[in-house]
Amino acid sequence: MAANADKNAPESQFQKLGDVVENNEEGPIQVESMCMNCHENGETRLLLLRVPFFRDIILESFECPHCHFKDNSIKNAGEIQSQGIKYTLDVQNDSDMQRQVVRSDVSIFKVESLGIEMPKGESQLTNVEGVIQRIHESLSSEQPLRKAQAPELHDALVPLIDKLKAILDGTGFPFTISLDDPTGNSWIAFNTQDKNNYRVSHYNRTHEQNEELGITADAEAVKYEGMPAADAGDSFDDIVNDQVYVLPAECPACSKACEVKVKKVAIPYFKEVLLFGTNCAECGYRSSDVRVGGEIGPKGQRITLRVLNQVDLSRDVLKSDTCAMHSEELDLSVAGSTLGSKFTTIEGLLTEVRDQLRATIFDIGDAGGGDSMASSDKVKWDSFFEKLDKAISGEMPFTITLQDPLANSYVQDLCAPAPDHQITAEEYTRTEEEEDELGLKDMKTEGYEEDANEEQTS
């Protein structure tokens, strides 16, 4: 029955990149449309394309035979995702410059190392080098005019343009870029060698971002009709362990009123944590989150667990959103912001890593990776997933390490209060990079009252 269902399923109109070349005789869809430059009739060509490891997009190309005006853009063929997404990449060599980039018209591309931001409004299907080239050309083309009309601005941009030129010449490595898209429909490609140089984080859109995308029902504010009012007398001290509290909220996906359920749990030999669960009755959006209470410790923590059997796979684990995870036996390295915060088991954590990677690595509807993946990469990924499957099923012993600069992660100790010889927990001094990412370098916890008094008197 399943095989017959697959045969009867409608065939997708979106082609893979390799199929576009093979089926070139079909050509793109051609539509007559008005030229916005001379108002005569021109021609728009549409190509429905399936980007490997991403999703379906529409390539648009317009050309006017009368005034010779040309334009091209890309549009996402799917829906706005339930969360926004931000990619951060440390570009270290020429290979990183060739990574594919899908950039929607509402995304913001930044060269973080230079403090340069590419404005919204232009969609692109290109690579990292192409985006850098576009920024360089945009800044350089107006320099003669700036020199005559705004010499100070001209002189200020010269060092930035020189640094961009050095990057394009291959002498400006390393540098950091980011791509932030509230629709979740932009993308920077990754490869099998990526570790902490490639970071992905998902986030809930703000009410203002939903308004900008046109998915807010009420531009003024969300009215929580029929939702229970919060008790002004409640405080954190009044929250009882293991009791579920319901709070009114705004759905980050559709901006309608929804419920957030909160539960405080005391983990033995650790800390108190808050579990959050969001469920929107309007659009079906669901999410969960974990937040650890207490102060930020002076050092980070590294927890190493030796997993030997199914009992170890069933250990509870709390992974905070700042916690990185790696295992040498599994060739696994996950940055802190990739999975967010999770309260699950070792088996559940590895299963989520596997499912997310498999959904991202392999083409849509193609569990085998398809012909768009290089054969060498496919062998590497097949070997990786084979080892991960064995680890999840308990067929392979392995060691997993959780490194959390805030020391807010936890692995269940089955022998507590006696020592568990399969777990090693050690403190470490945070690096300057970790301090900077967490905002701790700019945080002043002593003497701030004196600074405030000085500002008031001045």
Annotation keywords:
five-stranded mixed beta sheet, 458 residues, alpha+beta, 27% helix
Could you provide a short overview of the structure?
This is Zf-ZPR1-domain-containing protein. The protein has helices spanning 2-8, 17-22, 94-97, 128-141, 143-149, 151-169, 207-213, 310-313, 336-339, 346-361, 375-392, 432-437, 448-457, and strands spanning 15-16, 29-34, 41-50, 56-63, 70-76, 84-91, 100-103, 108-111, 116-118, 124-127, 175-181, 187-188, 198-203, 244-250, 257-266, 272-279, 286-292, 300-307, 316-319, 324-327, 332-334, 342-345, 398-404, 410-411, 423-428.
Global shape: globular
N-to-C span? 79 Å
Helical percentage: 25-40%
The biggest sheet amounts to:
5 strands, mixed
**Helical segment tally?**
13
Instruction: Supply Rg.
Output: 26 Å
Mean pLDDT: 81
Uncertain runs = 1-10, 219-234, 363-371
Number of strands: 25
What percentage of the residues does DSSP assign to strands (E)? 25-35%
In terms of structural class, how would the helical and strand content be classed?
alpha+beta
